[in-house]
Design a protein that fits this description.
By secondary structure, the protein is of the alpha/beta class. It has helices spanning 15-20, 25-40, 84-87, 114-132, 146-158, 172-182, 196-202, 242-247, 256-264, 279-283, 305-322; strands spanning 9-13, 50-52, 59-67, 72-80, 93-100, 107-112, 138-142, 164-168, 190-192, 205-208, 230-233, 250-253, 277-278, 297-300, 326-329. The strands form two sheets. The protein has an eight-stranded parallel β-sheet with strand order 9-8-7-10-11-14-12-13, with helices on both faces. Strands 2-3-4-5-6-1-15 form a seven-stranded mixed β-sheet. Helix 2 crosses helix 4 and helix 4 (114-132) packs across helix 5.
């Protein structure tokens, strides 16, 4: 058990430390659900993301949050450089997260946040997939990067009615490598889809974790989407044709404040769809999700700091219990 002297020391956790702790997917799901229910009940403080953009296709986000019922406060500083893997052999997303003591404000832990971000995002996706479409037989995943991989693993473990998971990436070799690496570790069959159109048309639940730009790319066309499907993007307005969200029977977002900020920043040039609920409100039972089998539902999850803090607390607790990490002087 690591002992940290409050106000004099903090714990530093590297990416290897965080990953090596092996925090279970069920623990992550439980923590993320708890945070989302708190968010749905408006028991939080979390300003909309502020950011800077050194290049058109990249962003840095500052993400603070306070959850009084969970006694958590902290902030994440994270970036996304889609070009990194191919041009520099570096991860697309890196960052750091700082947890603070609520009572005194002093920092207690600084940790790498890349793994945390990679797992909290798919946790939200599968929690909503389970809520909105519990009987889904096919789950389609666009993007075979770190988040795509975790989406597949979470879906295979948590969506127990699935017969198949279909993965598509604009680089087929990336999708094939990912499927080959994880197929033997899960019970649900996984295969690589031949085209965006094919995957959209055959899967009831679909998610995308590709890249984020202001101008919609509309890789998935409106005419391919049918009544009764559930679409859960993690890449704002980039991958799916805007017409899909505008005609959806329900358009759910994780944070209205953050969604409105991105609208102001130009990420929705055709204007915002009408928001019917927030993710946390649906999971808390405060607002309906799906009310009919023929409804088309779009649930856009950009990623919220409340979920980051909840998962970070589980990582921090595990590290203290197991004596993992480096103690640094303040």
């Amino acid at each position: 058990m690591t002992e940290i002297v409050k106000g004099q020391q903090l714990l530093y956790l590297s990416k290897a430390d965080v990953v090596g702790l092996g925090v279970s997917r069920q623990t992550i799901l439980d923590k993320v659900l708890q945070a989302l229910v708190e968010h749905g009940n408006k028991r939080y403080e979390m300003p909309a993301k502020i950011g800077v953009h050194p290049y058109e296709d990249v962003f840095f986000h500052a993400m603070p949050a306070y959850l009084p019922e969970m006694n958590l406060v902290g902030a994440k500083w994270i970036e996304c450089y889609p070009r990194n893997p191919r041009e520099f052999g570096l991860p697309q997303t890196t960052g750091l997260l700082c947890l603070n003591d609520v009572e005194t404000g002093v920092p207690t832990c600084v940790m790498d946040s890349s793994w945390l971000t990679a797992v909290r995002t798919p946790a939200v996706t599968v929690l909503m997939a389970k809520k909105l479409h519990p009987d889904a037989k096919k789950f389609g995943m666009f993007g075979a990067g770190v988040q795509g991989r975790e989406h597949v693993l979470f879906a295979a473990e948590y969506l127990d009615q699935l017969d198949e998971i279909v993965v598509y990436d604009r680089f087929p070799e990336v999708a094939e490598k990912m499927v080959a690496q994880i197929q033997g570790s899960v019970d649900t069959p996984i295969r690589v889809g031949n085209s965006v159109e094919e995957v959209v048309k055959e899967c009831e639940v679909l998610s995308s974790a590709t890249f984020i730009v202001r101008e919609p790319q509309s890789f998935a066309k409106d005419e391919w989407v049918s009544a009764g499907q559930t679409i859960i993007p993690c890449d704002l307005n980039t991958f799916w044709a805007p017409e899909i969200s505008h005609r959806a029977d329900a358009y759910i977002v994780d944070s209205t404040d953050e969604h409105d900020l991105f609208v102001e920043m130009g990420y929705y040039p055709a204007g915002s769809p009408t928001i019917t609920a927030e993710t946390g409100e649906v999971l808390a039972g405060l607002k309906p999700g799906r009310v009919g089998s023929d409804q088309l539902i779009v649930n856009s999850n950009i990623g919220m700091a409340v979920c980051d803090m909840a998962v970070a607390s589980a990582i921090h607790d595990a590290a203290l219990t197991r004596g993992v990490g480096v103690t640094l002087e303040l």
